[in-house]
Structures are given as C-alpha cells and as structure tokens.
Design goal:
- The chain is α+β, with helices and mostly antiparallel strands.
- It has 11 helices and 23 strands.
- Strands 5, 6, 7, 8, 9, 10, 11, 14 and 17 form a 9-stranded antiparallel β-sheet that branches. It has a 5-stranded mixed β-sheet with strand order 19-20-21-23-22, sandwiched between helices.
- The model has no long low-confidence stretch (mean pLDDT about 95).
Length: about 450
C-alpha cells in the first residue's frame, strides 16, 4: 500500500475516530488542551488555528489496533510484519524530476523566503520554552557510508530559520559527531505530516547503518517513494505535506528546553544542537501534524516498535514467550509485562533479563503466566499479589544505565527490578488457579436487561 496520510485521515473520519474542530483555537496551550481532552478516544482536526492558514491534526494513532488498521492489518499481523521488516529491509524508490510534479514541492521557499513562522507550531505545556515541532521525521545520511537514518527528535523554534534540537545519544548524534569531527555541518531534512506507517518505521530499534525507510518498505509491502530535496543531498517521502531542509551546525550549542516529555515530566534546559534552515517546501493547502507529548499517540509510536524488538530479543532467551506489553503509565518505556508459558525453572527470570538487555530505558519487568491479561493492569497486580514472595521472586540490579529523562535516575543511572509473578514450577498449580464462573463468556447482558 502507498502511505498516504490524507487517505488515513479520511478513514478516521468515516470511522468516527476523529473530531473536526471548526472553532478557532490558539496554538499556545489551547490546541494541546483540547487534543489532550479528546484522546485517547479521538484524534482531532483543527480547521482554524490562530496566526496561520494551515490546519493542524493530532492523534493520528490512539491505540495499537488503530496503528494496525492504518496499514490494513490486525495488531498481531503488524507485529509479525514489523519483526520481518527488521530483518528484511526493502530498498526505497527514488523518483526523478521527470516523474513529477510532486505535491510536496508545489511551494518552495529558499534563502530569505524561509520563515518557520508560517507553521502553526504549538506551545504544548506551561513550562515549555518555545513552540516545538514534535512530529517531524528527522532524516540524515552517514557521511562515511551514505546510508540514511530516520528518527523523530523534538525541535524548538528559535527564530525564522533556526531550530534547537535534542539529539539523544543514538544514531543521529553518532552520525553528526562524524561530520562535526571533520569540522563540517550535517545536512538534515524534516518531513512533517506523514502516514503513521512511516512514523512507526522511524522508531525501529536497529543497529547503525540500517535505513528505517527500508524497514517501512517491507512493512508496507512495496518500496517507499522518495524525492530529492532542493538544497541538501537527501531524499524525503513523496507523500509528505511539509519538508524543512537545513544543516546541523558544527561546534554550536545553544540552550534548548525545558520541554514536557513522555514521562509526564519536563526535560531540563541545557546547551543543545542548532539547525540552520535552508529551505521549506510544502503542498498547496498543507496539513500540519503535531504530536501532543505524553498522549497515547506519542507513547505508542515508541511502544509498538519497542515491543516488537523486545519480543525478538526475549525469544532468543526463551521460545515460550507469548506477548510483551510496555505500559502507557510508564511512557511505554520503563515498565514491561511479559506473558510466557513457562516450562522450566528459571525461564521467567531469563525472559526478564532479556527484556532488560533490549532497552536501557526499561526499569521494571514483571513476568506472568498465560492466564493473565498483560494489557489489564488489575490482572497483572492480581498475579503479583497472589503469586509473588519478595525474597524468592524479586531481584534488583543496582546502578545500570537508564534514561536521563527519568527524574528518579542518578544522571541517567537507574536500578532495575525484576518480578517473577509466574506460578512456581514445583508447586501445585491448582492452589494458584483463578476463580471462574462456568459459562460466563456466553452470557449476553442484553438478553437480561
């Protein structure tokens, strides 16, 4: 399938997953407030945003099922396809000018024409330092290999042609360090308002040197179509609504932040990277996408991809793992629940250790049996309360690498905790069996009320 955002928006409206807001809203707090109140039940399309002629959409994805539906799959099929895509990337298709015209180039601003003020960028939280771009795909190329890297970073609007950027110690930062060590800027393109499949692909946890767009090509079943930029040597999705081109400046750092992040706390102000914008291209009548931080849209984009990668890692430790869930309350980062059909003593603990190795951000892991619904935290808590003895089933790993956005961490160092809430292999299993009313699954209350 072709990843066309406008087709997904139309499907969301047909299915009642999105609300249109015709009243004018202020991009300073008000838009985020309305969007936050609507989620996770609905996405929102704001037709009139004060100070801009461009409408704003948020909440493209509010559930795992919606992400799968955007690609015409079930969630189980999506996880399987995503795992396959991680191991079998498909080259993209770069279109030349003769294959145009391209909608994303209907308007081209370069040089003095560049003005980030034309975008209806939002100020989301009360202590945020400025308006931010929160849903832009960040596209760079490794200067040594020429291989693309795609991800999502937050970008603070500083003035008409400069952005601040938080580059965490991941691939974009590694690639930029190569350019900076040579005294050169790193070219960058930001693609705003793309199909959910491209957002998800950008979050794939892979080694450096894997093009996330190629993962997306396998996920979608056909090559993603790209077109060359105007002022930088990069390619961007043809179906983007807005493209920002520029370069990350070497040896330049300016204060960026604070900014409300996925743990529902603020990331602190600190000296960070600066992007100088060289061009903006966009469709006629474009749509601008903002991700409201810490909403389900934000959390699931990282959570779904991490769950798929984590499943692969845990399966190497035990083939008996059935499901993995990164919980929304932990930002889909810190807490993991693993469901497995344990066959051997110690198997649950091996699965827990594997979950820790799959991501430095994971803090707490709970392993449960197949009779526990890992998406129902009451059921998970029931397992902890009825199947765990602390001295036997809880273990702690002190002073491991964590995440600096975790306010309880010590400069990014965290203690990790594993909880084995599975039934002990040597015990009589009937002692741990949940009560059950025979035939309850077949009762339809409409026949009684």
């Amino acid at each position: 399938m072709k990843p066309i955002l406008r087709e997904w928006l139309a499907e969301m409206e047909r299915s009642g997953m999105m609300k249109r807001i015709s009243k004018e809203v202020d991009p300073i707090h008000e838009l985020a407030g309305v969007g936050k109140k609507l989620e996770p039940q609905y996405g929102a399309f704001f037709e009139h945003v004060r100070g801009s002629v461009i409408p704003v959409v948020t909440g493209l994805i509010t559930s795992r099922e919606a992400m799968a539906r955007s690609m015409h799959m079930s969630y189980e099929e999506l996880l399987q396809r995503f795992n396959d895509a991680l191991n079998n990337p498909t080259p993209c298709k770069v279109l030349d000018q003769s294959q145009g015209p391209f909608a994303v180039k209907e308007n081209i601003l370069v040089g003095n024409q560049v003005d980030l003020g034309l975008l209806p960028a939002c100020l989301h939280h009360e202590k945020d330092s400025a308006r931010y771009l929160t849903a832009a795909l960040c596209i760079v190329k490794d200067p040594e290999t020429g291989i693309r890297n795609v991800c999502i970073h937050r970008h603070e609007i500083k003035d008409r042609n400069h952005l601040g950027a938080l580059l965490l110690p991941r691939h974009t930062n590694q690639i930029f360090s190569k350019a900076e060590s040579a005294g050169k800027p790193l070219e960058i393109a930001l693609a705003i308002s793309v199909h959910p499949s491209l957002l998800l692909s950008s979050q794939a946890t892979t080694r450096l040197g894997v093009d996330e767009f190629e993962i997306g090509s396998t996920l979608l079943g056909e090559p993603i179509e790209l077109v060359k930029c105007e002022t930088v040597d990069l390619e961007v999705p043809v179906e983007s609504e807005i493209i920002i081109e520029g370069k990350i400046l070497p040896d330049v750092r300016e204060d960026e932040g604070p900014f409300g992040e996925y743990p529902k706390t603020y990331g602190a102000k600190a000296p960070r990277h600066v992007i100088e914008v060289t061009a903006i291209t966009y469709r006629n009548h474009p749509i601008y996408h903002t991700i409201i931080p810490a909403t389900m849209e934000h959390l699931l984009l990282g959570g779904i991809s991490r769950e798929a990668t984590m499943m692969q890692t845990i399966r190497q430790a035990t083939p008996n793992v059935k499901k993995v869930h990164l919980t929304p309350a932990s930002g889909c980062r810190y807490h993991v629940v693993i469901q497995l059909d344990q066959k051997h003593d110690g198997e649950a603990k091996n699965a827990i250790f594997a979950a820790f190795t799959s991501s430095t951000e994971v803090k707490h892991v709970v392993a449960v049996d197949t009779d526990i619904d890992i998406f129902d935290m009451q059921d998970v808590e029931w397992a902890i309360s009825n199947r765990v003895q602390a001295a036997r089933d809880i273990f702690i790993i002190p002073n491991a690498m964590g995440n600096k956005l975790d306010p309880s961490s010590r400069g990014g160092t965290s203690d990790k905790m594993g909880i084995d809430a599975t039934i002990p292999m040597g015990d009589r299993r009937e002692r741990f069996q949940k009560i059950h009313i025979d035939g309850i699954e077949d009762i339809d209350l409409e026949n009684y009320l």
